[in-house]
Write a structure and sequence with these properties.
Structural class: mainly alpha
InterPro entries: CHCH, COX19, Cys_alpha_HP_mot_SF
Oligomer: single chain
Protein name: Cytochrome c oxidase assembly protein COX19
Keywords: Cytoplasm, Disulfide bond
GO biological process, one term: mitochondrial respiratory chain complex IV assembly
Number of helices: 2
GO cellular component, one term: mitochondrial intermembrane space
Number of domains: 1
Distance between the termini: 49 Å
Helix content: 25-40%
Radius of gyration: 13 Å
Amino acid sequence: MRSLGCECKSFKEKFMKCLRDNKFENALCRKESKAYLECRMERQLMAQEPLEKLGFGDLIDGKPEAKTNS
């Protein structure tokens, strides 16, 4: 059963490295987190959820991470 989730290992490693490099400030690693969760959903390793529900609505369709509109 060790192979479960190996398909997304590189995404997980990038996400974890980002967290370590940013003192575990997860807001700075949202793109990596999104990519990791998308990988897991695509491979049916977790339930499909809309990205908006997971808090990534502002990262869909290449929208910038930071909201610049006032």
